[in-house]
Amino acid sequence: MSAITNEAQGVRAYGQVLRLPGARTFVAAGILARFPRATLSLGIILLVSATTGSFASAGLVVAPLVGGMAVAAPLWSSRMDRHGQSRVILVSLGCLVLAASAFLALVVTGAPFWTWLVAAFVTGAATPDLTSAVRARWTVLAPPSQRTAALALETIADQMVFIAGPPAITAVAAAIDPAVAVLGSLGLGLIGGVWLAAQRGTQPPPTPRGPRHRGPVLPPTGVIPIAVACVALGGVFGAFDVSLVGWAELSERPWLAGPAFSVLAVAIAAGSVVTGARSWKLSPAARYIGFAALAAVVAVGLPFAQGSVPVLFGVILLLGLAVSPVMVSGILVASARAPQGRVTETLAYPTAAMSLGVPIGGVIAGAALDATGPAAALVTIAVSLAVAAAIAAAGEAALRVARDRGAAAR
User: Fold this and answer.
1) pTM of the full predicted structure?
2) Among 281, 292, 323, residue whose Cα is nearest residue 394
């Protein structure tokens, strides 16, 4: 067995992929570039709730923001495939600065509330999915034997932002002003995005599909099952956020919600390290289905553990460890099934689907929380994971039947 193969199966695989030409630089740029997508929603919640005194109004404003992100992410990514990442990233960042500035101006000046909703949607639509842009670079730079480690590294980078970003933006909002916190998030994203755009040597080569290419941007057939399942997976995180906030507040210890989020993020990061470091016999699609089902079983313990903080945090830790292979495997499936010239676009679908699922899961968990309390809300986490596993399994079976029929027809 070669040294490369041995390294690809151990923790040293991360050092190996980071030694690839240009890898460290675009990973660092990608971490900064993630901040708007990771923290803009929270910043706007803090801004709108401070301005209006209503969390309900803040939730209404965040909904079109997230919807805009989910709808536009594949469109921006598709243009990156056609025209090159650097060019499109700079254009999208310019649009984001203009849209976000207009949104802040409308809120600060007390413009009519409906204009906030429109501006929030435009701001979300102007926010590029630079996570998929970074992941697409790995599909060019890293050979297949190193791709699991490379994409696991990206999941770890995601969690780093989600661990550090929310506390930082909350602290700035409390100490200075929520508008300053939003501007800080945008500033970090702008620095990271420009830095990433400047690295032309590691971007996938543009693949124009013809000067008169028309028609809607639709996901490749092979990625649809995982992308749809990722809507349910996003619902897990939306339900988790609402359920844990409700649990903490009803137990008269609201400060516990923050540590609970951190435990989940740290567990996902740690699980991603393990996922990327080992060699798997199961295919990425099988791992997605199997670990989503396992995570659903673990999540069943959440409502039973809510009476004890240490036990609940222990279950959350196990949940994060089980969820991490699901997240890494979904990206691997998308990268493996991306048609030539559509890598960045294809990698955007799981991310966009998860973004779309977050508010859906939050709404369902919120309704359960209001109706019967934290236990019912926590159950929605397990249900969301089970639905993700079922959708992925049914979709993979449908793809297999379609392939068999196609082979028989030939």
Assistant:
1) 0.77
2) 292
Q: What is the pLDDT of residue 93?
A: 94
For residue range 56-91, list pLDDT tens digits in order: 677 788 888 888 888 888 889 888 988 889 999 999
CA distance 85 to 70: 19
What DSSP designation does 265 have?
H
Cβ contacts of residue 58 below 8 Å, gap of 6+?
44, 45, 46, 47, 48, 49, 52
DSSP code of residue 254 = G
| Closest alpha carbon to 289 in 386, 212, 200 | 386
C-alpha triplet 181, 169, 133: angle, nearest 5°:
95
The answer to whether 90 and 81 are in contact (CB under 8 A) is no
For 40, 93, 119, the CA distances from 101, given in Å and listed in that order, are 13, 12, 9
- Is there a contact between 117 and 61 (Cβ–Cβ < 8 Å)? yes
Higher confidence at residue 351 or residue 215? 351
Instruction: For residues 163 and 92, give the distance between their C-alpha atoms in angstroms, rounded to a whole number.
Output: 26
- For a pLDDT cut of 90, what percent of the chain falls above it? 32
DSSP letters along 145-213, please? Answer: HHHHHHHHHHHHHHHHHHHHHHHHHHHHHHHT-HHHHHHHHHHHHHHHHHHHHT-GGGSPPP----TT-
Whether the per-residue pLDDT at 162 is higher than 80: the answer is no
**E strand or H helix at 79:** helix 55-83
Cβ–Cβ < 8 Å for 155, 328: yes
Please state, in angstroms and rounded to a whole number, the distance separating the CA atoms of residues 370 and 177: 31
> Residue 191's pLDDT is what?
95
- Token digits for 230? 């990722």
For tokens 């970003």, name the residue: 165
- The predicted-structure confidence for 275-315, as pLDDT tens digits, reads as follows 877 778 888 889 999 999 999 999 999 999 998 999 999 99
Joined together, the tokens standing for residue 399 give 């793809």
Q: Are 366 and 240 in contact (CB under 8 A)?
A: no
